Structure formats: C-alpha cells, structure tokens
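Changelog-adjacent note: as of this version, every example in the card shows the full chain rather than a window. The one below runs 220 residues end to end.
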Amino acid sequence: MNTQNLYTILTYLSALSLSIPFIISVLKFKVFNKTLKTLFIYLVVSVLSETVSFFLTTKSINNFPVLHIFSFLECLLIMYMYHCEFKNKGVTIIVIFLSIIFSIITAVTLLYEGGYNKPDNITDTLESAIIIGFSISFFYKLFKDLTIPKLTNYYFFWLNTGFLFYFGVSFSLFISLEYIEQCNIETARFLWAIQLIINIFYNALMAIGIWKTHSSPRTL
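Full-length structure tokens:
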C-alpha cells in the first residue's frame, strides 16, 4: 500500500469517526446541559463542514472558504463551552474579549488579498493557542479544587483532554505550515496523516465524554 492510498483511507476514517460522537449526542440530547448543547451545535457544524468540503473536493472546487468558516465557528463555540463550565465572571470577560479579538483578526486575515481562498495558519494557530490556554487552565482548576470525586466519570474531563490533545498537535503543525508546504509530498502526507489520526482520537474522546453524561456532575 503506497502513502497516497494510506492517506486516502485515513482521510475517510477521520471523517467517519465524527459520526460516533454525533450519533451518541443525538441519543443523549434529552439530558444535555448548556455545555453539551453547545457541543451538539459544534458537532452539527462539523458534520456540515465535512460534507460540504467533501462535495466541493469531488467537484474540484476550492473548499478553503468552508474550512475557514468552520474554524471560526469552532473556536467561538469551544470558548463558549469553557464559559459554561468555569461559571466565573473573570473567565466570561476573557471569553468575550478573545472572541472579539479573534473575530477581528479572522476577518482581516481572510479578507486581505483573498485570504479566504488559501490556507491560513495565522487564525488556525491563534485558535489552537486559545483553546490550549483554556484547557490547561481548566485542568489546573480541576486539580486545585478537587471537587470531582472521580474524574473519569466527569464528561468535561474527557472533552477537555480531547481539546488539549487535538489543538496541541494542531498548533505544532500550523506553526510548521511553511515547512510542510515546501517539503516533499511523502513527508507532507506523513505529517498530515498524523493530524488525521489525532482527529480520530479526538472524536473518540468526545464520544466517551458524551457517553459519560448520565453519571457526570453538571457543575464544578
């Protein structure tokens, strides 16, 4: 099996793995709190983005505008989840401030010289850095307060782990985007294959978190 075929298989598996947390969220929706309802919206947006991107790719149409819109909404929705979980006025102010800053930077970056039609490592890197910051802060709060009897039964522990893991790897790839674009095709496929594998793991962690909803506390 050559690297092209392997990369294609991983691409399909990565996209299909999204169906697992989505299906579980549909089954569990009745017991969702505000955080998980926001996560459900995020999953719906993810499914729509994957579907539209796949359709555009099959038609040889540039799908970067769709990916950029998804990244923008993704960052805002995840920040809102942290707002819901922290339940802290200071965090709420930070979320509002970062949402405004991120929106401005995204608009300027994508609208300047047709940036919406090409890769954008500025806003993607910024998004990853923001989510990493929130996820590390949340872990600090968890281990400082010690208010959760068993972390593995707490749904947001799994979600937060997924956010930190996925966006941590993404951050490393995005800051290396210039190198990836210049290296040979085999190396580029290998590096993006890592991203696809991480995405599968990320979706698995979200699925576990959603499944744990019935036994997880809703507040810290």
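Structural remarks: Confidence is low (pLDDT under 50) at residues 215-220.
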